Amino acid sequence: MMKPKRLLSLLLRLIAVGATLAAVIIMATSHEKGTFFAVSYEAKYTDTPAFKYFVIANAIVTVYGFLVLFHPPGSPLWRLVLALDLVFTMLLISSISAALAVAQVGKNGNSRAGWLPVCGQVTKYCNQVTGALVAGLIALITYIILLLHSIYTFLNPLLEKA
Amino acid sequence: MMKPKRLLSLLLRLIAVGATLAAVIIMATSHEKGTFFAVSYEAKYTDTPAFKYFVIANAIVTVYGFLVLFHPPGSPLWRLVLALDLVFTMLLISSISAALAVAQVGKNGNSRAGWLPVCGQVTKYCNQVTGALVAGLIALITYIILLLHSIYTFLNPLLEKA
Where are the beta strands (DSSP E) in A4-146? Predict the structure, then answer.
């Protein structure tokens, strides 16, 4: 039988892998043909560097999360996993912030810079980007919980002995 | 006499406070009158939510960094400082990523979305935003070094005892 703590941690890691994978798939499949000033164009995530960064970062975190699932419990490498969790949480924060900032311009535009909002023309594309960002946020929250849990279980026995 | 380690940590914290303060001042004072399609306008950081977030985040981290400077060494609260360092490093990463993503659109535009680059019209403004981002990056690197240093000095005695 698995310990409840280990089971909870495994469940959280499964959710995290699912969420980052969903973020990659939803963002990568987002495209829609729109018309802008009578010019037809196709909105794709590759048009926006911030969205490309989001896909790459989430793909990296998915691969990492998947590999950690098969990591045996009680291995001395868990200290490394704690450090890597931290690094990949920072990568997620960075990619979500960047994608969110550009998505905000896409939704509301920036009148001072003369950037018009595009979500009116490509509603489906915008909804998909929003979905990907929500999936990314779920992954981020899961990783932060995992991080707090790891720090607690890792530090607690050390603190008791100290 | 201060210990060399403590002196180094204090020096790093001074650099971090200076860098975040510089980021706030440079970004907050950035404004330039430009002409866009014969319409005169003034580019300011308040036009862009991501830049406002950058200024607020850096201001918060400046205040925190300043307060920590006066924190007595050997206090039991240093464990809290380590946790807060982590939180504020994440805040810095997030704000810099968001500002960088929008600054990239400002510099290169996004032809698919019909967003024209604005740096040709407001070069001085763009240079100041770039300066603020560089200051923010310096602060971020300093905080990451501080974090690694804190984790090392905090965990080392515990690991030896364990």
Answer: 31-36, 39-44
Average pLDDT over residues B72-77: 78
Give the best-scoring range by mean pLDDT among A49-53, A146-150, B1-5, B35-39.
A49-53
* Burial class, B145, CB count within 10 angstroms (exposed 0-12 / middle 13-18 / buried 19+): middle
CA distance A147 to A145: 5
Asked if B105 lies within 8 A of A104 by C-beta distance, the reply is no
- Flag if A157 and B159 touch (Cβ within 8 Å): no
- Is A100's CB within 8 Å of B105's CB? no
A18-to-A14, A62, A82, A132 alpha-carbon distances in Å: 6, 8, 20, 12
Q: Are B24 and B54 in contact (CB under 8 A)?
A: no
Q: Looking at beta carbons, which residues of chain B come within 8 Å of A86?
A: 86
Tokens of B162: 């364990």
pTM, entire model: 0.89
